[in-house]
Design a protein that fits this description.
Mean pLDDT: 85
Strand content: 35-45%
Strand order of the largest sheet: 1-2-7-6
Distance between the termini: 39 Å
Radius of gyration: 15 Å
């Protein structure tokens, strides 16, 4: 059975991969069409928030098949381990955003992170 597609203006929740290695927690998510300038990442000690708006017009296209789309992406994820927001990084490369944060029981507060 086919799921209903979200409307182009609806915020979509991207799928995520969360993994830990070498004392660091990483979250990777595909956000097709996103640019670093329009992607906002906030890391708290126990939570990750991502808002991304993709600026790619599809209004003039006549789709014969449409399985993915660009638009607004939103993620609010409870992290499985506490992290240090102050030493976190975010990198957007080839449509995949990866947020990396050192695992730390001492992590406090939250921080908006520039996207590289």
């Amino acid at each position: 059975m086919t799921k209903a597609m979200p409307t182009p203006n609806a915020n979509q929740r991207p799928p995520v991969n969360v993994y830990a290695a070498s004392g660091q927690l990483s979250v990777a998510l595909p956000i097709p069409g996103a640019h670093a300038d329009h992607t906002h990442v906030t890391v708290a000690a126990d939570r990750l928030r991502v808002l991304a708006e993709c600026k790619y017009s599809q209004d003039q296209q006549h789709f014969l098949q449409r399985e993915w789309q660009v638009g607004a992406w939103e993620l609010d994820l409870e992290l499985p381990q506490r992290v240090d927001p102050e030493r976190s990084r975010a990198v957007l490369n080839l449509g995949v955003l990866t947020v990396m944060a050192p695992i730390s029981n001492e992590g406090r507060g939250e921080r908006q992170i520039p996207v590289e």
